Amino acid sequence: MHILVTNDDGVFAAGLLALVQEMRKLGEVTVLAPDRNWSASGHVKTLNRPLRAKPVTLSDGTPALASDGAPSDCVALALMGVVEKPIDLVVSGINPNANIGHDVTYSGTVTAAMEAAIAGVQAIAVSLDAPEYHSGILNYSTAAIAARKIAETLQEHELQPNTLLNVNVPYLTEDEIKGYRVTRQGMRIYRDELIRREDPRGKPYYWIGGEAPTGVPESGTDFGDLAAGYVSITPIQLDLTAYHLLEEIGRWNWSRG
Ligand code: MN
Known about the structure:
Elements: E1 2-6, H1 14-23, E2 28-34, E3 53-57, E4 63-67, H2 71-82, E5 89-95, H3 103-106, H4 108-118, E6 122-129, H5 141-156, E7 163-170, E8 179-182, E9 188-198, E10 204-215, H6 222-227, E11 230-237, H7 243-250
Parallel strand pairs: 1-2, 1-5, 2-4, 5-6, 6-7, 8-11
Antiparallel strand pairs: 3-4, 7-11, 9-10
Helix pairs in contact: 1-5, 2-4
Bound molecules: manganese (II) ion (MN).
């Protein structure tokens, strides 16, 4: 199996290295990741400037490619030929913070995996639910092992086209993990606050601040089961159609005048 590893935190992030080392147990690993942090950049396709992919070396000696493109650009570049050998699986992460509920539309980690799904390649996004005010080095080993186990399952079962897995792992040891649960997206509660200040020339500027988001801890959801100590595996689809509205709003009068 040939696995592409990418992320949205930058090619030298500790979470990527932990993922690379664990995925190598399953096959050949190629790394093509952004050269800087693109967290919360959403799904990007860079069309108005050239993209570069330059060779770099990770701290354990692993050769990698670093691109000035977004996470989803990195996946597109790799799948369209920058990486010559065909890729069987794309794994994106390990993001240090959870990507649950509506986060998936903001997340560079998840949208990198979405890019793979669009291209018809199996894809997993992996995020660690690190404590909010954690300082110092994070331990990614539990999340890396979870990612490897989930990738092993994907060798037995293939996801349908245009779908991917969004995986979130509690910040616990292997022994403390309660198990693996397939979940649906839960409800995130964002606590964004608009900070308005003035620059030295008296012009206003804005900063989106506020507390980190929380969520509704409902069982069966990504947020709820993650909070309860389970590895959360949410199947995501790229079709965002609100099917439950088709019939109702199909009866509304749309052709006025
Ligand atoms: Mn990130």
